[in-house]
Amino acid sequence: MSFQAYIDNIKAKTGKTPEDFRKLAEKKGLLKPGVKAGEILNWLKEEYGLGHGHAMAIYTVFKGLKEAKKDVKGMLAKHFGGEKEKWRPAYDAMMKKINSFGSDVGTDIVISYISLLRGSRRFAIIQVTKDKLMIGLKLKGISPGDRYEPAGNWNAMMTHKVAIISSQEIDKDLYDKLLKAYEQAIAAK
Question: Residue ranges of the domains in the chain?
Fold first, then answer.
């Protein structure tokens, strides 16, 4: 089950979004420093009838909120450090174009990749290596095609992947696929 499926199931069961749970946890003092994961999990299980996996999904959101307060620019810089620095101009240009898709485009930066979001829904990811940008796309109902491969085990959240070995490969076709993934993200339930 995907992370988004956990969140969707929690909302269906409780009527609450992760943001709702965040507010409730804040009121109970569960987001203060020193509060253990077990306390939060027990609260979610006892008061809302969540199973362990679903409670962990909400806890992961809370943990992400704490981590989001860290230096996001510093995290982004790590993706483009050393030999990967050459990809930063291509990434910046690509993000400028992707941000024009809509006002709800965002990013979520973790250690291994950069997620591209429409609101809270991930529609693509970017993984930076010294030799290439690996771009994963969530494109339902579209066959992989020439340059796009099934994402497979590379990233189970994505349906397609493409290796970009030159900034010239960041072209209209790729932007069209990214836009399609962005558009599908809002329709996903």
Answer: 3-68, 72-187
